[in-house]
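Data availability (excerpt). The following record was deposited with the supplementary files.
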Amino acid sequence: QVQVEESGGGSVQPGGSLRLSCIASSQFFTRCGMGWYRQPPGKDRELVSIISSGGTTTYEDSVKGRFTISQDVSRDTVYLQMDALKTEDTAVYFCAAEFRAGGCAPGPVRPNYWGQGTQVTVSS
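Predicted structure:
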């Protein structure tokens, strides 16, 4: 009923750029927000950036000023532009989405649907 599909991972040298894309759609539920989490090797999954359906954005402190999240509502797509990449950005990046029946509750986006993940490797 809800499909979440990521694309755009890969390998890049430090200082380089990558753009991730994610499409998430549903015929039955309202999309409340979408975003990205990541799981570095040997660590827990962490928030990277979230954008609500109304356009409110949140960023994890270490990516502020380097990553930019945006959305194209007409295409059910969210993008993560990652610039000035660092080795510590290496992780599996997961697209996350919140879809609800009957509308969205106030407050932060609470993802309940996840993509399978895409690998981002930053290495010289």
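Summary of structural features: The chain has a mean pLDDT of 95.
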